[in-house]
Amino acid sequence: MDCSSSRPLAQHRVTAENAALRSLPGVILPARLLINAQFRIVYPFLPAISRGLGLPLKSTALLVAIRAAVGATSPLYGYLSDRLGRKALMILGLCALVIGAAMVALARSFGIALIAFGLLGLAKSSYDPAMQAYISDAVPYEQRGRALAISEFSWAGSWLLGVPIAGFLMARWGWHAPFAGIALVGLICIAGTWTLRESVRSASQCPAPALSVDNPRSTRFNRALFSEVLAPSAGVTLLASALVILANENLFLVYGAWMETRYALSLTNLGTASVVISLAELVAAVTAAGVVDRLGKRRSLLGGLLLNALAYFFLPLTSSRLSTALVGLVLVALTAEFSIVSAVPLISGISINARGTVMALNAALMCVAVIIASLVAPRLWEAGGLWLIAGASGASALGAALLLWHGVKDSSLTSQ
């Protein structure tokens, strides 16, 4: 049956959009906040985790690297979300979160922690692209920046709530304690996600032709698909997004060590100080939700990247006192989060036929950036301290801006 003879997708758009937006605060935001919390609480407390495992910082950073390495397999899960549906992959991610967090809570050796962090990487790599595609399926491109920016509130929220709570739990019961809580709350999130309706595109759209070389229609589909995904503008957009993450990870992998050694902050105080950063990220996400669709996705991202590069270069000048250092970190967090949130709707317009795969490719490249930062940041910190770290991060953000300026035009995206 020709897809044109089936019910038009437009008939379902309003209902699907309303359902997707209704699911944001009650189901998607709590689940993603939890997934992001397991991701983010590691950074400020990496020295504490190192002490708990009896390992140097460079060795413990491998936990972050293995989590990111597993996350780099996300294109597989993006492909599966295009074939099997978004909801199934979101549930898979939450199941991996519960098992991985429970293993961390029980871990008493580096080997068990390494396996557990691999599962935590699977959680984010399978949930995030499917969730972003779920929202993108239902919300038109012109309003999608707002909807996806709302979903990114969970990133700031995971730092705002997760880091202070984790600091308190670690100070009271040890570095394992926050992960036990994540595992328990994750079970509730699985139940909530189970109640979601499948996204309208994966449920109602005609299935793509089978991937067979004997099917001429399939061959045409594959060529069209790869021409979208592998177009130069698509590659540049994805690379720019990865460079933003590289810059951010490079700094925050050594954030805890910087705060401990320079300002002698305890675990509890470190968690409290991190609230300032999370509030800045929340402001950035709210701002992006209000302006990205109006200013344009590319223009918003370009402006955010330029300001982000300046914030990194400025950061070492603020390090003389804790109060001024927090101001510098706020500027970094504001501009980095605005750039990250602006990139997501821009990337969602690369391909309509394989949106889950494209979002997963973005997640995979982000994971590669995390791996690189995990291997490089501790060495940069030992070699040159904050000056070298900030310079490398600023150069990465500036490189992303230059790529976007020369390689991407709004007209090169599908806008669907």
Descriptive report:
The longest helix has 53 residues, at 355-407. This protein has 416 residues and is mostly helical. It has helices at 10-40, 46-53, 57-71, 74-84, 86-106, 110-138, 141-151, 153-173, 177-194, 200-204, 216-229, 232-252, 255-263, 267-295, 297-314, 322-348, 355-407.
Radius of gyration: 21 Å
Largest sheet composition? none
User: Mean pLDDT, as a whole number?
Assistant: 79
Do you know the CATH topology?
Growth Hormone, Chain: A
Question: Structural class from helices and strands?
Answer: mainly alpha
- As a percent range, the share of helical residues equals over 70%
Amino- and carboxy-terminal Cα gap: 24 Å
Tell me the name of the CATH homologous superfamily. MFS general substrate transporter like domains
Low-confidence stretches: 1-13, 202-227
Task: Provide the domain count.
Answer: 1
Strand content bin: under 5%
Give structural attributes.
single chain, 416 residues, mainly alpha, Growth Hormone, Chain: A, 17 helices, 82% helix, 0% strand, disordered N terminus
Q: TL;DR of this structure?
A:
The chain is mostly helical. The protein has 17 helices and no strands. The longest helix has 53 residues, at 355-407.
List the helices and strands and how they pair.
Elements: H1 10-40, H2 46-53, H3 57-71, H4 74-84, H5 86-106, H6 110-138, H7 141-151, H8 153-173, H9 177-194, H10 200-204, H11 216-229, H12 232-252, H13 255-263, H14 267-295, H15 297-314, H16 322-348, H17 355-407
